[in-house]
Amino acid sequence: MPFADGMAWSPFDFAFMGALLFGTLLTFDVAERRATSLAVGLAGALAARFHPARVAWPLFAMSLAQLPVPLVAWLVAGPERFSAPPGAWGVLALNVAFAAAFAMSGLLFLRSGAPNPGRA
What we know:
This protein is mostly helical. It has helices at 11-35, 40-47, 52-66, 69-77, 87-113.
């Protein structure tokens, strides 16, 4: 590569990166066409009619979807790519932290949507 000495990408690496970019842009294009002028998060909130207990479930789904990310990255990139900082355990810890944040947000939404008999 002419701009970085430490990177030696093969033609497969470039094709794979191109496929990832194409897939991301295609997904965004389909989501944009389906959601017209609404953002996906806003569309989910509208579908839940802004009810906190209903908004909690997409957050739980996001939490579960976050957990396998390090495993997929490890399988795709290979274990040798995780030798640099933060390392495999650091990546795992960061993803667990994000999953926990989504789950805690979901729990808070559930709690805020629960009836409170002590409120006037």
